[in-house]
Amino acid sequence: MPPDTARVGHPTDTAGRRCAAGRSGDDGPVKILSIQSSVAYGHVGNSAAAFPLQRLGHEVWPVLTVHFSNHTGYGAWRGPMLPAADVAEVIAGIEDRGVLGSADAVLSGYQGDPAMGAVILDAVATVKATNPAAVYCCDPVMGDAGRGMFVRPGIPEYLRDTVVPRADIITPNHFELDFLAGRTTNSLAEVLDAVDVVRATGPRHVLVTSVLHGDLPPDSLEVVAVSDEGAWAVTTPLLPINPNGGGDVTAALYLAHLWTTGSPATALERTIASVYAVLEATLAAGTREIQLIAAQDVIADPPARFTARRLR
Question: How far is CA 18 from the centre of its chain?
Fold first, then answer.
């Protein structure tokens, strides 16, 4: 479980139509099967994604792929990495209760092994077999600018060729988008072209974080959302902070807001408003752990702070 850096404020088919339409007229919380890592201390993986989703009033079924004492960014940790077969057993147990097919969405983050990826994709297939309106949101964690790839050899190609084409929503950072599209992008137009290449492989919704290009004002970055309905960007100041778990929170919030509003632009605005406030609280606290609890009010009620501008 490599450290997951913040992806806001720092450089670093049927389901698709259903997600675009939102949940107008539906009752009850969104039910999300979240298959990710977990830590006892701090906030990454499910330990970063579950609470924000619950604070928004959604139902989360967290399935753990590891259970560590803390994230690996500290350089030392304790606890087990769970075998893929054990993770599959947990998911099978949920299915035994007769509820797996009622999930509205499957969420995944870091996939350290193709066997774990296969378990996740099997879960997605099982959910969608019963509920074709369900969506799969994948954060294709591979690396970031300045660090390069930090996952095992073969994982980036597995994500690109096998996992991403099966996803409805993906949330890569700029570096990961370039890898998925097989090109280097330096302008906003090139970023949009790269997104189109990736969307042609399967995912209908793409959220690109930590976007840097030559037309940006100094000390700022952008987050870009693209769907069948169009493309939008939000520009934020660049914060001098690089905590772990920001990408996990971003993926979870974008999935939730996209599902409940049906609007990529609104989902983008609300997600970035909350994540940016969390990062500001983290910077003010002077800690390396994101301040999810301290900033929970802006998660539950995102301020109207950033306006998405339409790109096309």
Answer: 19
Helices and strands, number each (H, E), in the chain: 10, 11
Does residue 185 belong to any structural domain of this protein?
yes
Instruction: Report the CATH number that the domain containing residue 214 is assigned in CATH.
Output: 3.40.1190.20
**What pLDDT digit, counting tens, does each position of 33-70 carry?**
999 999 999 999 999 999 999 999 999 999 999 999 99
CA gap 94, 299 in Å, rounded: 28
Domain that holds residue 59: 14-310
Q: What is the pTM of this model?
A: 0.93
Q: What is the C-alpha separation between 1 and 42, in angstroms, rounded?
A: 14
> Confidence class of residue 172 from pLDDT cuts 50, 70 and 90?
very high
User: Is 3 a member of any domain?
Assistant: no
How many domains, the chain?
A: 1
Residue 71 inside a domain? The answer is yes
